[in-house]
Amino acid sequence: MTDDTSQDGGTQSLAVMKRAFEILEHLTDVESTGVTELANELDIPKTTAHSYLKTLENMGYAINEDGRYRLSLRILWHAGQLRHSFTLYQVGRSQVDRLARETGEAVNLGVPESGERVIIYGAEGENAIWDDVPIGSRTPLNLTAIGKAILSHWSESRLRSFLDEQALGEATEHSLSDEERVVAELEETRERGYSIEDEEHIVGVRAFGMPIKQSDGTVIGAMSITGPTSRLSQTETEERLVNELRETVNIIELRHEQY
């Protein structure tokens, strides 16, 4: 059992900060927690768990309801501020909404961070399936249409660094977790002009993705259209959705340059 107050100086400060974030992450994963539950989960004294929870409560980041603590909605404010700082979000959200409405499918906007695809905005059309991608969700880049669209336009040196430093994700039996297969898939994606996610993240789900670039060619994110494999495997449907996706990406790129 670890007591963060038993350390000295800077080491103690770092330990306290690390523990505070661990508790915030734990509160994100559960509906609520009690002092004893938290102490057992993180293997810390109950007095320490209580101190952290009371501090979070006093700062407005946790709510105490009859001795059980949950995250407050203050976290949403920070998340909203961060998202609004993305120019891509500002210029892309209305286009995501429009494309979802016109195609009837799920449309997502994402950016790369630390080897993962992070969703910054999404919308669902009337025929959309629920594809379990809440705002802020993170998935290894090699598993999704957005991720592969981004990777396919990275420089050779950047892609090599990614492959050397990041473990390739694997979610289903269809996931491309072998380096040679991933590289071959990215080459095909560049030649095709768009990425295809074929049950690599979720069985029964297919998606098409395209990178969003600045005028100098730098990739700043990507957009995808997602739907059931049965529907998106049809050639005519694929061609129609890819054309609509391409037009939307072009609009976003132009708006991004003018923002």
State the main characteristics.
259 residues, alpha+beta, Arc Repressor Mutant, subunit A, Beta-Lactamase, 6-stranded antiparallel beta sheet, two-stranded antiparallel ribbon, 8 strands, DNA-binding transcription factor activity, DNA-binding
Report on this model:
GO terms for molecular function: DNA binding; DNA-binding transcription factor activity. InterPro entries: GAF-like_dom_sf, HTH_MetabolicPath_Reg, Tscrpt_reg_IclR_C, Tscrpt_reg_IclR_N, WH-like_DNA-bd_sf, WH_DNA-bd_sf. This is IclR family transcriptional regulator. By secondary structure, this protein is of the alpha+beta class. The protein folds into 2 domains: 69 residues, Winged helix-like DNA-binding domain superfamily/Winged helix DNA-binding domain (Arc Repressor Mutant, subunit A, Orthogonal Bundle); 179 residues, Beta-Lactamase (2-Layer Sandwich), CATH 3.30.450. It has 10 helices and 8 strands. The strands form 2 sheets. It has a 6-stranded antiparallel beta sheet with strand order 5-4-3-8-7-6, with helices on both faces. It is elongated, with a radius of gyration of 21 Å. The mean pLDDT is 92.
